[in-house]
Amino acid sequence: MTRWNPDLLDDVLAPGISRFTEANIPDLSSEFDQSTYWMSNHFLSSATGVRYSGRGRIHLVTAILRAQLGFAAYHEARQASCEYLLGNNPLNPRVRKYFALVGEWETCVHNIHLFIDAFNLFAKPEKAYTTGDGSEEERFCLLSNDVKHLGRAAKEEHCIPMWLTNDGLVSLTSNVSYLEIAKLVRTMARFADLLQHPAGAVGYKPDTDPTLGEQGIGGIGIPP
After folding, report:
1. How far, in Å, CA of 76 to CA of 108, rounded?
2. Domain residue ranges in the chain
3. How far is CA 27 from CA 30, 32, 194, 205, in A?
4. CA 7 centroid distance within chain
5. How far apart (Å, rounded) are the C-alpha atoms in residues 116 and 129?
6. For 45-75, how does the pLDDT look when each residue is reduced to its tens digit (9 = 90+)?
7. How far apart are CA 47 and CA 45, in angstroms?
8. Neighbours of 209 (CB within 10 A)
9. Alpha-carbon dihedral sign for residues 83, 160, 22, 67
10. What's the whole-model pTM score?
11. In whole angstroms, what is the distance from residue 127 CA to residue 62 CA?
């Protein structure tokens, strides 16, 4: 059986690829049975009842869209990770499958970051995080920025800006565990469940909703 030098694999393919052997990535699909219909439900609710209005409407609708795309991308990345790891030899890795799953995770990261951006716009003055708080939201956005802006990775002579470990996603300046990503996705999905129906979202106060919890993206009232 072919076995490559692990240092060679980590240098030429991706940091830590020779040690990537497992990943506990929660499946959230059964928790949100409307995830593929959030945008459709929003259209039907808006066409027949209360609609979002004003200049902030684009931020609310963008949040629903990015939640739907991000939720789907998370589960596609999860599936790709499971398929890669099943029977994989880390010292003779499935190169094509590895970079396919990296691409799936980059799509997931991109859409969740855009959801956070939309949240910060429609939730003013609240924000998903404050600079320097070290939260999973901040670390997630730092990781996303590393994927988009390659300058720092190039200075360190990395071959890719983001890679996978047994615990989660890592970039040059940040890291987020799979469990933390799942927490972000779950909170994002709960907001999408709420936002898809404007009539139920207007005037909503999250401090009365135990499903959002005390941590993570939350703590706002949805504007009319």
Report:
1. 9
2. 34-133+191-208
3. 8, 11, 21, 28
4. 30
5. 9
6. 999 998 988 888 899 999 999 999 999 999 9
7. 6
8. 12
9. negative
10. 0.89
11. 16
